[in-house]
Design goal:
Elements (H helix, E strand, L loop, with lengths): L14 H13 L19 H18 L1 H4 L4 H21 L3 H34 L2 H11 L4 H19 L1 H15 L4 H19 L7 H8 L12 H16 L20 H20 L5 H21 L1 H15 L2 H8 L6 H6 L3 H20 L1 H10 L4 H15 L1 H11 L5 H13 L9 H9 L6 H5 L2 H18 L9
Helix pairs in contact: 1-2, 1-18, 2-4, 2-17, 4-5, 4-17, 5-12, 5-13, 5-17, 6-8, 7-8, 7-9, 7-11, 8-9, 8-22, 9-11, 10-20, 11-24, 12-13, 14-15, 17-20, 18-20, 19-20, 19-21, 20-21, 21-24
């Protein structure tokens, strides 16, 4: 059973109450994975502190309006980060403490750098597999089978759940969405239903793997949950996916579309790149688990694996093309000859360039903004409100719901920066709720926002909102399963 809720009690009246309220808004915004570093000067009740909060809220409102404003989300948070740290530097220099602000900035920047390099390697591998047509081949295989709508609904959902722990929820959701929109072209109702299912499944699948989402990656890198311990969330994640999927499947009409014939040939080295990615993941896990070194060391070493393999592909390209050309000539396969004429060498730096740089820069802005607000003292105040005056279980459930409105990355950043005293079970709980809570709304996760863009006109905010009650039912059920199944973990601290 859920523990009884303790009603929240905000700080005293006046400026302290305002600061507490604003800090709750900031909670739903962001923070680095370092410990909650509060500066020597408490700026929460000052004009500078409140102005900094206002700047951040305004920047985040611009981020939320990205689709309407057609302005990349990294722009406002980059400027906000500069203003916030500029204010901190000015106040600390005025008080004769310039070294304290500089040290805090460098610590926050180091935390971001580790995560950025980790994500950059993962994105590079995903882009390399995409360039080698791994995902196109999977999509073509599904299109050729001529599955019924109901089979397609379940297959795309299950594949989204299975693939997202490895390829991340965003990439997986886009892949499955491409299949659905191709097969059911023009059937907006079915596409919307499938896309809702895909977003829920991708977010649920990403919640039990360090590689499934940025939030789980942050928790793992912070050393709060070991790699194998994430799998304690497997069954709750399955429940989170299955309950809404079962209900929605009832509304899928019994229709079998014509199969689509699409021949996709994997490019040379595709399977070996998949194996190198798995080896890279193993290297990151080994660095963290066996050597007690940051996982980013293993990931950057894995980037070296890919560079060496890319060198091998370039050096042997001419020999490989000559052999395939001879085979095509003997068979009289003109299409194969045409394809061989368009082959270009594999270039890893092109794969790096195609990484989601807007996301990475947005990540930097968010981390630095909330790092600055935490240094001002707002996150300590927030931690007092949520994790001292509230029960940790209810606080984590609330934060999961907040992630549906604001996105799960900021929520997890804030919690990791506050570093509240919680049991192992509670850290697993916030990992679960932040990972799957964003499924409640289409704008609550990167997967949902990306699919809205890809299936524009078919998958909409209101179309997703119609299924929010059954998604919420899965959210509650997954929490209850975790509280029951992993009850012993709530007794373990440290």
């Amino acid at each position: 059973m859920l523990p009884p809720a303790r009603p929240p009690r905000l700080a005293a009246s006046g400026i302290s109450s305002l600061a507490a309220f604003l800090s709750i808004v900031v909670l739903a915004l962001y923070s680095p994975t370092a410990h909650a570093a509060t500066g020597l000067l408490d700026l929460t009740g000052t004009g500078v502190g409140l102005f900094a909060v206002g700047i951040f809220i305004f920047a985040y409102l611009l981020v939320m309006g990205e689709e309407k404003l057609h302005m990349r989300k990294s722009k406002p948070v980059l400027v906000a980060a500069g203003i916030i740290w500029g204010l901190i530097g000015w106040v600390y220099v005025s008080n004769g403490l310039p070294d304290a602000a500089e040290h805090a900035f460098r610590e926050t920047l180091l935390e971001f750098t580790e995560l950025m390099l980790f994500l950059l390697v993962a994105m590079t591998y995903i882009n390399a597999m995409e360039e080698r047509r791994v995902f196109d081949a999977l999509r073509a295989w599904m299109l050729e089978r001529g599955f019924s709508y109901r089979t397609l609904f379940w297959m795309t959902g299950i594949l989204a759940f299975v693939i997202s722990p490895i390829a991340d929820n965003l990439t997986t959701a886009l892949l499955m969405c491409a299949v659905v929109t191709k097969v059911a072209e023009g059937d907006h109702r079915f596409i919307n239903l499938c896309c809702v299912n895909i977003v829920v499944a991708a977010n649920a699948g990403g919640a039990f793997s360090p590689f499934g989402d940025i939030t789980t990656l942050m928790v793992w890198q912070a050393g709060l949950i070991a790699f194998y311990e994430f799998f304690e969330l497997l069954l709750p994640s399955v429940v989170n996916f299955l309950i809404p999927a079962v209900v929605m499947s009832v509304f899928v009409k019994n229709h079998t579309p014509e199969p689509h014939t699409e021949h996709v040939e994997l490019k040379r080295g595709a399977r070996r790149i998949i194996l190198l990615f798995l080896l890279t993941v193993a290297s990151a896990v080994a660095c963290h688990t066996l050597l007690h070194l940051p996982p980013v060391l293993g990931m950057m070493t894995g980037l070296g694996y890919l560079q060496f393999f890319g060198y091998y592909l370039r050096r042997t390209l001419a020999r490989s093309l000559a052999r395939k050309r001879d085979i095509a000539v003997r068979r009289g396969d003109e299409q194969a000859l045409a394809r061989l004429g368009s082959v270009v060498p594999f270039d890893i730096f092109n794969r790096i360039a195609r990484a989601e740089w807007d996301t990475l820069l947005f990540f930097y802005g968010v981390v630095m903004c909330v790092g600055g607000l935490g240094f001002m003292g707002y996150l300590s105040l927030l931690s007092e409100v949520l994790y001292t005056q509230w029960d940790a279980t209810w606080a984590n459930i609330f934060l999961g719901l907040m992630s549906a409105v604001i996105d799960n990355i900021p929520v997890m950043f804030a919690v990791l920066t506050m570093q509240p005293e919680m049991s192992h079970g509670h850290w697993l709980l916030i990992t679960l709720t932040a990972g799957v809570g964003g499924s409640l709304l289409s704008i609550g996760s990167a997967a949902g926002v990306a699919v809205m863009g890809q299936a524009r006109g078919s998958y909409t905010f209101m179309g997703h909102l119609r299924w929010a009650p059954v998604i919420f039912l899965g959210y509650v059920a997954s929490i209850l399963v975790h509280l029951w199944l992993n009850a012993d973990s709530f007794l373990r601290f440290g």
